[in-house]
Specification:
The complex is a heterodimer of chains A (310) and B (256). With 310 residues, chain A is an alpha/beta fold. Chain A is built from eleven helices and 14 strands. Chain B is 77% helix and 2% strand. The complex binds adenosine-5'-triphosphate and magnesium ion (MG).
Chain lengths: 310, 256
């Protein structure tokens, strides 16, 4: 069953800006899906339409087969959404925000209190339950929005940059938390600019750029397509210039102790180390220059600097 | 499904009531203080020199109007500031994202405004008892008019909030439309005192009908036929109600 089906979706804002140019997207039930794209690509616009905050210009959206136009009551009940920007009443206490949200879905306060307590504890907000939301830190506010989105037990959860501005440790706990609810059966769609995060958690991925889907694939399939990977090597002895290696063309000297080497998928790391050893160069450590998904992403979406800044 | 909507309605209404009662020093006390001053100045000090109006003491004459004025401004202000606030800080999205029909959102906000209007009206009535003996001719008519009026102005406040794009926009209408109409709506004088021409003009002011029918509820006398007055109020409620529903379903001011 498809958790989300988007067909021919268009959005032109009143300013005349065309934010979505007829995108198609399908997400299977149970999936952990990444929707990636540079700033201004149209991710939030797409999510806004799915969650009923933005009017679409054309096309249709179905959530578990229910149209968001004709069957919006059912469609909305199945969807939980964590928006990119904070959108709660900052003067309301944390617990009340979540209980009210449950109320909008028809869950009486008495019942909601129990579920609220569960999520507040799980997301580490329990001791702040009576604080006004504006007194929370940025990371806590994000978690508050996640708790709020889960209160009616949605089958599809969409998160728009849930880990923006969240510290590393908390980000890891959030990952674990999301992986856990995904295992329990919730379909998850996530946007993020941390590609490492997408690579780690998501099974399928779409890249959207300037309102068009430019890639829609499974993560392993995508990563397999990469025909080379760049590594940074830290050397024991100082080098005056980049070494010339017989099989590796792109070798760049970064500093006296560091070089960068592009390794095509026809060659192995052993080949590289071997050729360096032959020149008497000792490699102390090494790392990927960027994570693999990032390498694909940059290749697909990069444009001349002037254009991307303009 | 209906039960689900009922819970959603209760949630919105409760949240609205909590909102203004949490800040009661800003929402309940000022209108009460203001009306108390009116009673002191116009009722006691100046009123004694004015003598009778429509066959009753001046303070008895203005008392229903002042209660009505509090109901009008408070129902209106509550909805306009709460709904605009929800738009501004974007927590209106909490309702938009959820399966809440526009009608439920509308009823929830309007109920919140009505509760505040009626609460303040009640408080003002209590204060009036310090200045003049409490008499009520028909509690039923008084309550009915109070409820209908607060409903009407809660709806008006919602329309204002839907179109508002800044905090200025939510004070312009109350200052330049609502207050003048209220003051000229027969709170402080009987329109019989006016020249013919101005009497006719006054009849175009909807607030006149509310003040007069409310005064009828308290004192049993009115410049205007009670039935006509009720009809006018109900007509405006139906009009604004429809307008609100259309605006909400289009997403005016809340969906791009
Ligand atoms: N309310 C609006 N009115 C007019 N244009 C808008 C509006 N909201 C977004 N846009 C434009 O639509 C385009 C897509 O924006 P959107 O917020 O969907 O991008 P995004 O992919 O979420 O970017 P980011 O990663 O920065 O959050 C951008 O060019 C943006 O300027
Ligand atoms: Mg965005």
């Amino acid at each position: 069953m498809l958790a989300l089906e988007i067909s021919d979706l268009y959005k032109t804002y009143s300013s005349g800006l065309q934010a979505l140019k007829g995108i198609n997207l399908q997400v299977e039930e149970g999936d952990f899906f990444a929707l990636l794209g540079p700033n201004g690509a149209g991710k939030s616009t797409c999510i806004g339409i799915i969650s009923g905050l933005v009017n679409k210009t054309g096309g249709y959206v179905k959530i578990f087969g229910h149209s968001i136009d004709d069957e919006f009551i059912i469609a909305k009940s199945l969807l939980g959404s964590v928006p990119q920007e904070f959108n709660f009443n900052t003067f309301e206490p944390v617990e009340e925000i979540i209980i009210n949200q449950a109320g909008f879905y028809g869950v009486p306060a008495r019942l909601a209190r129990v579920v609220t307590a569960h999520y507040l504890k799980q997301l580490g907000l329990w001791q702040h339950r009576r604080s006004q939301a504006r007194r929370l830190s940025g990371g806590m506010k994000r978690r508050l929005m996640i708790a709020r989105a889960l209160i009616h037990k949605p089958r599809l959860l969409i998160l728009d940059e849930p880990t923006a501005g969240v510290d590393i440790e908390l980000r890891r706990t959030m990952w674990e938390f999301l992986e856990q609810i995904n295992e329990q059966g919730t379909t998850i769609i996530l946007t993020t600019h941390y590609l490492e995060e997408a690579e780690r958690m998501c099974r399928n991925i779409a890249i959207i750029d300037e309102g068009d889907i430019i890639l829609d694939s499974s993560m392993p399939h995508l990563l397999k397509q990469m025909n080379c990977e760049t590594f940074v090597l830290y050397l024991r002895a100082e080098l005056q210039q980049a070494p010339v290696l017989p099989s590796f063309e792109n070798v760049v000297r970064l500093d006296p102790h560091g070089i960068e080497v592009e390794v095509p998928d026809t060659l192995s790391i052993n080949d590289l180390i071997g050729e360096l050893e032959a020149l008497g160069i000792v490699v102390e450590r090494m790392r990927n220059k960027v994570n693999r998904l990032e390498e694909v992403f940059v290749k697909m979406t990069s444009k001349p600097v002037t254009e991307s800044l303009g | 499904m209906l039960y689900q909507f009922w819970i959603a309605y209760l949630t919105i209404t409760r949240r609205e009531i909590l909102r203004f009662s949490r800040i009661w020093v800003q929402t309940i006390i000022p209108p009460v203080v203001m009306v108390a001053l009116y009673f002191v100045i116009f009722g006691n000090l100046i009123g004694q020199r004015i003598g009778e109006m429509d066959g009753m003491t001046y303070i008895d004459f203005i008392m229903p109007g002042l209660v009505m004025m509090s109901i009008i401004t408070n129902s209106y202000t509550n909805v306009v500031s709460s709904f605009y606030g929800a738009k501004y800080s974007r927590h209106i999205e909490e309702m938009q994202i959820a399966p809440v029909p526009d009608l439920v959102i509308l009823l929830g906000f309007v109920s919140g405004g009505m509760v505040r209007g009626i609460c303040v009206g009640f408080a003002v009535t209590l204060v009036s008892m310090l200045f003049t003996e409490f008499r009520i001719y028909s509690p039923f008519v008084a309550l009915l008019v109070a409820l209908l009026t607060s409903c009407l102005f809660a709806l008006a406040g919602l329309i204002n909030a839907i179109f508002a794009n800044s905090f200025d926009d939510i004070t312009i209408v109350p200052t330049f439309v609502l207050t003048p109409l209220t003051y000229l709506g027969g709170i402080f004088y009987s329109i019989k005192l006016l020249p013919d021409f101005w009497q006719q003009v006054s009849l175009g002011n909807p607030i006149l009908y509310m003040v007069n029918s409310f005064r009828y509820g308290f004192r049993g006398s009115s410049d205007i036929d009670l039935f006509t007055a009720l009809l006018v109020i109900v007509f405006f409620i139906a009009l604004l109600f429809t307008a609100c529903l259309v605006l909400l379903s289009r997403g005016t001011g809340i969906r791009q």
